[in-house]
Amino acid sequence: MAEVREKEERQGMDQGRETFRMELESRSENEEFARMTVAMFMSRMDPTLEEIDDVKTAVSEAVTNGVIHGYQGKEGIIYIEAAVEGKDFTVSIRDQGIGMADVKKAMEPMYTTDETGERSGMGFSFMEAFMDQVEVRSEPGKGTEVIMKKRIGR
User: Which of 1, 33, 124, 137 sees the fewest Cβ atoms within 10 Å?
Assistant: First the structure.
């Protein structure tokens, strides 16, 4: 992912929005902290309990994907950015892990690279079910970014 594009996008997130950023070590135990922190930031929008649960589930899935698939259990950083603009909530979960060659294939329900049988391959499907919009950007060897949007209080 090009640094110039990322810088431009971050600047765009800041204009007229309230933003939040954090970095976490890519450890499974940080998933709960990530989802709770994002939910607390989102609470300023006065969301329903259902909206909070939807976002928490989607964030949980995206962070878990970064830890399990992006870094494959190795050390790394999960980058989280969230923004509130009016009724629109945006959250980005990014890693600098192994990336994906075929995002479309990876987003198919039941598709998984996990050979242990512990993963169902439904992470992206859950993200799409609980958020209004999901965009995935990835490059092999450079990482993956999942950008999710939800309209709060329709």
Answer: 33
Question: Known catalytic residue: 154?
Answer: no
Whether 61 sits among the annotated catalytic residues: the reply is yes
- Residues 118 and 40: their CA atoms lie apart, in Å, by 30
From 31, 35, 51, 65, active-site residue: 65
Task: Kindly write down the DSSP assignment for every residue of 52-85, as one continuous string.
Answer: HHHHHHHHHHHHHHIIIIISTTSS-EEEEEEEEE
Structure-token match 């192994």, residue found:
98
Q: Which of these is catalytic: 17, 119, 128, 139?
A: 119
Active-site residue flag, 75: no
Whether the predicted model's global pTM rises above the 0.85 cut: no
Alpha carbons 58 and 50: distance in angstroms, whole number: 12
Exactly one of 51, 61, 81, 145 is catalytic; name it: 61
Residue 8 to residues 11, 104, 139, Cα–Cα distance (Å): 5, 25, 19
Which pLDDT tens digit goes with each residue over 59-117?
999 999 999 888 988 999 999 999 999 999 999 999 999 998 876 766 665 555 556 55
Residue given tokens 């959250």 in the structure block: 91
